[in-house]
């Protein structure tokens, strides 16, 4: 299997008020292209930090992150931004739609950044896939949480990412909506052949992936295949 | 027939600094040796005293050296002739007949043998009624005579310029011969005879005689004075 | 493999950036409107104030021109020769001739005779202002025949009426009008003799112009196109000087008219500076908050792969757009205000302010609005570069910008340079601009320091024993996302400006009132003999007139200075005494105390002389300089023959700007009482009628006393001064009002800061009253503290301004400051409450949704 994400000896420490706080401690793992993975752990275990590092949103203190063969540690923030734009999709717990853009425009942004063609049609198509074709002109504040997360899903897939990072995608949603959104994530993932990295403390959700990486106190404590794997 | 505007109110106002009216006059820019107004009470030698009592014409306003004024010229003449007279210049710029009338007591503290009265010009330029001028001059003559019955008085005649109007200037001109006749004193018909209207004999201000003009005036006076001495 | 297919050098799509900027601005237009309105108010204030300033400056300059009535006036005491005539005729685009002289005028009807100043006029003089007469048309029509204009007081004095005649020299003139006011009245000459205008054409036949006549020849010029007067007069000066002639320009007259023109222009500069900063406060506070709100969006964009530079540009473009719209709208509004205000207040204005569109003001306003927008947007925007996209994962907005970002300092430097630059446009002095900017910087630092001190203090002080409302209200001052610094600075600075304008206006108006004749002498009686002293004063009082001053004047000369005489001076060139010191006849007075217009600069004042000892005298600063005198120096005076040994006991500074008697040398009492002297009496006559009656009485009782009536002269000046004082009041009132509007706008934009919390509290069941109380407490505290700080800074700043810029005594009424404190505090609370009103009147969810 081809490796899309390679994490080697990754550590992250914060310095605050003269004290050093180690959030991640010597983490090592690979993620295979096209696989679905969950990073689980209790609150404060460092999983969000890990996600941020994997996606190139932050710099590690030591160790390397290699995304699609590109060592993110060597890149500037602007270069990482372009890597993100080309290979990475995001879904956030609190959706993180641009509040001043309509649903459709939110989906269009990654495409526009890449100067692609037929942007509007493709974005509408994506919105249609998440079942929001008729809500394209609405602003995020006019949408429900579930709808917002679906828009963000459409946006995440708009650039046909090689890898999708989802940070507690259902954390702010009720059970029923969660189920719909999760189904969408997996469906779209399957359809596009995208690699999925999911951060959650919801074991039920994690169980839907092929592999579960457990983190506690900044350390990788378990890495196991699920029945799906 | 010319007559000069003497030390007028301008001088007074310069002191009062009417800056608010845009009037800001510098003090006269003459550089001079000290005025030779001899201390009145000084020197009680055998010399007799001639007092020139008058306005700016006597004081020598605007001259490099106040002793260049006509009393100074006459003093030089007296000195060169070795006549036993001491000259006192009691000229005061801007003096009117009323002012002279009030000031005369200050001068009479000292013995006077010959008294030359040169006042009235400022009255004329201010349009003061000629009766008033005449009255004040009379009063001055009376005071001098009362204190020193043997004093010899010379009245120096004045005229006002033609722009004051024929009526006024004729009346004004007549004051001096009338007073001289009435009091039986000597008269210089017009002090500035041959000076007024002659450019070279008048200062740049066109008001006061130059040193050269003062010599002409002194000659006018000397014609009368030499007979008395 | 596509490993290396990442195109790091993706080209920037400018169109997309504009598109994003536009899209981002559409949502919540009302909110955007609020920000734009703050810019609009800031720039409108600036443009209106600048426009008024430029117009008013032109007006006042125009008014100043009426002081001489022409662009250039040349005069001399001699007829001009042919070559000079040629030169004089080559000047200007329109020329007038005037001959003036003293003469005894005769009123046949009342058989009265009086010294007048005859002015024979030819040409269209005056070019500025007019010869104001009753009836009006007489001012120009008198030139058409053998007619005269006669001074109002003179008419009253001789009970003359239009239609009567006046005899000048040999000719009778028909009095066609009463002269109320005329430009070009040169002070004293016009004062000592009332003016009578006649046409030049009839001058010869009066028979007054003969050899020996004392005549002033004047030539008045108007230049149609602006001319560099300085250059022209510099060229003319030696030629005219040789011919014994003088010239006068409007500028020159303005300078000699006293300090009021200078004060006005300094004040207008100050107003311009304040307007500039009001504009800054309005625009900067709006932009600052606006950009801060965009930080979250920027983090998301970064996540999606937007480069820092692109995010930066998107918002820069947006700010430029907002700045442009705000500035243009502001400039339009400002111009509209400038045009409408004088119309609205037309009936209250003592004169008309000309309303010309000032493109200079508009241009500066728009440029300024754009630059301020960009500069103040840059501050938060440059930290965008450092915003980690990680912020999307964590909702923390800790200070992401490292404290020592060098670019940040560059922006600060740019802002300071910009303020200095624009201040220079107002002040025209680099040093002044830097000092002003430094002052603002210090004010800013003080306010910021007070704000951070407040935050620390409140944090320390708050404890659980306080009621919830108090705790919540005060905690708002220091909690994250607080508005303490922003509001402290904008309220504090605005209050400071308002207060400074109040104080300085107050000081200047007092100064102007001092110079206007309303409280000053406008009639001088002199040559009063000592024996007449009490009688004249008594008569003055009996007429109901005040004896403003009555002083004895003694004439004397200086004979020796430290043993040196004029003779020594000629021998020894190293003596630092000017020759004129010995030649001048000094008019001195004696009294036991300093007058209001005097101030000691050296030595001690001694009011009474000890008999038999040297006399302690006080000399005026300039004389001290010319004669090289300092306290302790020995002098010998010659008091009309009597030698009087004296010494310099003090040096005085004299304010020569008032109509009153001032002296180069002042003696103590007890020395000169018996010396020959005369008295001068100063009084104020309220009207021509009273003046005429008073003059008649004085002339009848004391024919030797001469009178200078400055009424006519001062009335021209008064009109100007009242205009200046009005302009100062108008400009400061206008600036103060706009200052308050800008202040309101900058508090208003804090509206969204507290919405989330208020809604949350509302959701948790907080009553209307509780939310009001919390908001009120926060704003009351902010408002009052910043107002207080601002006012205190203003007291210091206005003191400095008064002392060093205006050089006037600092005597300020502090009550406006106290009142301003309450107004600003209450106003802040009211706006704060208005801000939260929206929250209270709508269901919480609706607000959360529209403002999320």
TrEMBL record, chain A:
Domain ABC transporter: 5-227
SUPFAM superfamilies for the chain: P-loop containing nucleoside triphosphate hydrolases (SSF52540)
PROSITE patterns: ABC_TRANSPORTER_1 (PS00211), ABC_TRANSPORTER_2 (PS50893)
InterPro entries: AAA+_ATPase, ABC_transporter-like_ATP-bd, ABC_transporter-like_CS, ABC_transpr_LolD-like, MacB-like_ATP-bd, P-loop_NTPase
One Pfam entry name: ABC_tran
An annotated Gene Ontology molecular function: ATP binding
Keyword set, alphabetical order: ATP-binding, Nucleotide-binding, Transport
Tree of life domain: Bacteria
Official protein name in the record: ABC transport system ATP-binding protein
Source organism of the structure: Mucilaginibacter pocheonensis
Lineage of producing organism: Bacteria, Pseudomonadati, Bacteroidota, Sphingobacteriia, Sphingobacteriales
Automatic annotation (TrEMBL), chain C:
Transmembrane stretches, start-end: 32-52, 267-291, 312-337, 357-384, 409-427, 433-455, 485-504, 726-750, 771-802, 814-834
MacB-like periplasmic core domain span: 33-237
Protein name per UniProt: ABC transport system permease protein
Cellular compartment(s): Cell membrane
Main subcellular location of this protein, as a coarse class: membrane
InterPro entries: ABC3_permease_C, MacB_PCD, Membrane_comp_ABC_pdt
Superkingdom field: Bacteria
Record flagged with keyword Cell membrane: yes
Keyword terms: Cell membrane, Membrane, Transmembrane, Transmembrane helix
Pfam families noted in UniProt: FtsX, MacB_PCD
């Amino acid at each position: 299997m081809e490796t899309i994400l390679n994490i080697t000896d990754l550590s992250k420490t914060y310095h605050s008020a003269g004290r050093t706080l180690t959030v991640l401690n010597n983490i090592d793992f690979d993620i295979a292209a096209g696989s679905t993975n969950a990073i689980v752990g209790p609150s404060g275990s460092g999983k969000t930090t890990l996600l941020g590092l994997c996606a190139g949103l932050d710099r590690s203190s030591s160790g390397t992150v290699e995304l699609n063969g590109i060592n993110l540690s060597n890149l500037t923030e602007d270069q990482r931004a372009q890597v993100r734009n080309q290979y990475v999709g995001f879904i956030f717990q609190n959706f993180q739609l641009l509040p001043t853009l309509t649903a459709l425009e939110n989906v269009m942004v990654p495409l526009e950044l890449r100067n692609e063609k037929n942007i509007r049609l493709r974005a509408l198509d994506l919105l249609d896939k998440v079942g929001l074709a008729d809500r394209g002109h609405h602003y995020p504040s006019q949408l429900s949480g579930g709808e917002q997360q679906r828009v963000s899903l459409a946006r995440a897939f708009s650039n046909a990412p090689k890898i999708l990072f989802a940070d507690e995608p259902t954390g702010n949603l009720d059970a029923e909506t969660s189920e719909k959104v999760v189904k969408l994530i997996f469906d779209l993932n399957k359809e596009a052949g995208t690699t999925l990295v999911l951060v959650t403390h919801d074991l039920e959700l994690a169980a839907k992936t092929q592999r579960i990486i457990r983190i506690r106190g900044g350390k990788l404590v378990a890495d196991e295949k699920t029945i799906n794997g | 027939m010319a007559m000069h505007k003497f030390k007028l109110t301008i001088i007074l106002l310069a002191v009062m600094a009417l800056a608010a009216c845009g009037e800001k006059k510098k003090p006269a820019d003459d550089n001079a040796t000290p005025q030779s107004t001899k201390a009145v009470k000084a020197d009680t030698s055998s010399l007799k005293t001639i007092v020139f009592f008058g306005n700016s014409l006597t004081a020598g306003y605007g001259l490099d050296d106040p002793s260049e004024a006509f009393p100074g010229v006459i003093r030089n003449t007296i000195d060169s002739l070795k006549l036993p007279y001491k000259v006192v210049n009691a000229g005061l710029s801007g003096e009117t007949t009323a002012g002279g009338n009030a000031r005369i007591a200050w001068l009479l503290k000292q013995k006077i043998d010959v008294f030359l009265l040169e006042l009235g010009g400022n009255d004329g330029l201010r349009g003061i009624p000629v009766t008033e001028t005449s009255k004040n001059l009379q009063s001055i003559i009376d005071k001098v005579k009362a204190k020193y019955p043997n004093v010899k008085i010379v009245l120096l005649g004045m005229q006002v310029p033609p722009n004051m109007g024929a009526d006024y200037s004729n009346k004004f001109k007549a004051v001096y011969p009338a007073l001289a006749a009435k009091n039986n004193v000597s008269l210089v018909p017009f002090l500035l005879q041959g000076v007024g209207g002659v450019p070279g004999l008048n200062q740049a201000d066109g008001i006061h005689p130059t040193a050269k003009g003062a010599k002409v005036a002194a000659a006018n006076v000397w014609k009368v004075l030499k007979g008395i001495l | 493999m596509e490993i290396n297919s990442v195109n790091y050098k993706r080209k920037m799509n400018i169109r997309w950036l504009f598109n994003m900027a536009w899209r981002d601005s559409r949502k919540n237009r009302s909110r955007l409107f609020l920000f734009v309105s703050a810019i609009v108010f800031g720039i409108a204030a600036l443009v209106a104030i600048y426009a008024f300033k430029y117009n008013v400056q032109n007006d006042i300059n125009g008014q100043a021109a009426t002081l001489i009535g022409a662009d250039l006036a040349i005069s001399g005491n001699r007829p001009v020769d042919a070559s000079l005539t040629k030169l004089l005729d080559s000047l200007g685009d329109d020329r007038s001739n005037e001959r003036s002289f003293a003469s005894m005028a005769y009123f046949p009807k009342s058989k009265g005779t009086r010294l007048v100043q005859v002015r024979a006029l030819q040409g269209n003089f005056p070019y500025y202002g007019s010869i104001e007469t009753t009836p009006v048309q007489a001012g120009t029509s008198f030139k058409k025949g053998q007619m005269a204009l006669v001074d109002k007081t003179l008419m009253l004095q001789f009970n003359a009426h239009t239609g009567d005649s006046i005899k000048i020299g040999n000719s009778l003139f028909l009095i066609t009008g009463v002269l109320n006011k005329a430009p070009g009245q040169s002070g004293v000459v016009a004062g000592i003799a009332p003016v009578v205008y006649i046409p030049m054409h009839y001058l010869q036949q009066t028979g007054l112009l003969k050899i020996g006549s004392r005549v002033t020849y004047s030539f008045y010029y108007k230049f149609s196109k602006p001319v560099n007067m300085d250059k022209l007069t510099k060229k003319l000066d030696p030629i005219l000087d040789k011919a014994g002639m003088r010239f006068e320009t409007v500028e020159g007259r303005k300078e000699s008219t006293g300090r009021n023109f200078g004060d006005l222009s300094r004040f207008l500069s100050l107003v311009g500076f304040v307007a500039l900063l009001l504009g800054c406060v309005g625009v900067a506070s709006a932009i600052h908050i606006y950009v801060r709100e965009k930080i979250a969006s920027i983090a998301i964009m970064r996540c999606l792969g937007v480069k820092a530079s692109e995010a930066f540009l998107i918002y820069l473009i947006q700010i430029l757009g907002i700045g442009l719209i705000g500035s243009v709208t502001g400039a339009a509004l400002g111009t509209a205000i400038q045009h409408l205000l004088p119309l609205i207040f037309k009936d209250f204005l003592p004169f008309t302010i000309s309303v010309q569109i000032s493109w200079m003001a508009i241009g500066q306003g728009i440029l300024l609005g754009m630059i301020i927008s960009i500069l103040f947007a840059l501050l938060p925007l440059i930290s965008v570069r450092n915003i980690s996209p990680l912020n999307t994962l964590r909702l923390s907005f800790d200070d992401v910008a490292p404290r020592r970002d060098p670019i940040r300092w560059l922006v600060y430097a740019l802002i300071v340079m910009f303020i200095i630059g624009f201040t220079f446009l107002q002040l025209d002095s680099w040093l002044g601009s830097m000092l002003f900017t430094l002052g603002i910087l210090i004010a800013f630092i003080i306010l910021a320091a007070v704000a951070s001190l407040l935050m620390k203090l409140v944090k320390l002080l708050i404890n659980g024993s306080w009621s919830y409302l108090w705790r919540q209200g005060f905690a708002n001052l220091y909690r994250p996302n607080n508005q303490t610094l922003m509001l402290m600075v904008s309220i504090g600075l605005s209050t400071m400006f308002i207060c400074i304008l109040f104080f300085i206006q107050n000081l200047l108006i007092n100064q102007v009132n001092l110079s206007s004749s309303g409280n000053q002498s406008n009639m001088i009686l002199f040559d009063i003999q000592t024996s007449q002293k009490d009688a004249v004063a008594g008569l003055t009082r009996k007429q109901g007139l005040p004896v403003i001053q009555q002083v004895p004047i003694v004439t004397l000369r200086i004979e020796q200075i430290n043993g040196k005489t004029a003779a020594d001076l000629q021998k020894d060139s190293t003596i630092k005494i000017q020759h004129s010191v010995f030649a001048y006849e000094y008019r001195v007075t004696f009294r036991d105390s300093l007058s209001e217009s005097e101030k000691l600069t050296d030595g001690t004042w001694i009011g009474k002389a000890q008999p038999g000892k040297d006399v302690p005298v006080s000399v005026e600063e300039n004389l001290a300089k010319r004669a090289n005198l300092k306290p302790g120096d020995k002098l010998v005076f010659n008091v009309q023959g009597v030698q009087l040994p004296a010494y310099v006991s003090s040096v005085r500074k004299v304010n020569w700007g008032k109509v009153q008697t001032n002296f180069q040398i002042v003696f103590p009492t007890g020395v000169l009482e018996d010396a020959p002297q005369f008295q001068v009496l100063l009084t104020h006559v309220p009207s021509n009628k009273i003046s005429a009656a008073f003059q008649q009485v004085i002339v009848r009782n004391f024919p030797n006393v001469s009178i200078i009536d400055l009424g006519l002269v001062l009335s021209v000046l008064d009109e100007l001064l009242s205009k200046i004082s009005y302009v100062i009041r108008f400009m400061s009132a206008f600036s103060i009002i706009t200052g308050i509007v800008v202040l309101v706008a900058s508090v208003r934009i804090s509206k969204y800061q507290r919405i989330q919390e208020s809604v949350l509290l509302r959701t948790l069941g907080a009553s209307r009253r509780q939310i009001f109380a919390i908001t009120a407490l926060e704003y009351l505290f902010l408002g009052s503290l910043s107002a207080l700080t601002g006012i205190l800074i203003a007291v210091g700043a206005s003191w400095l301004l008064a002392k060093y810029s205006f050089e006037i005594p600092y005597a300020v009424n502090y009550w406006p400051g106290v009142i301003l404190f309450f107004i600003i505090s209450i106003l802040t609370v009211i706006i704060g409450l208005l801000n939260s009103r929206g929250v209270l009147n709508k269901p919480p969810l609706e607000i959360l949704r529209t403002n999320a």
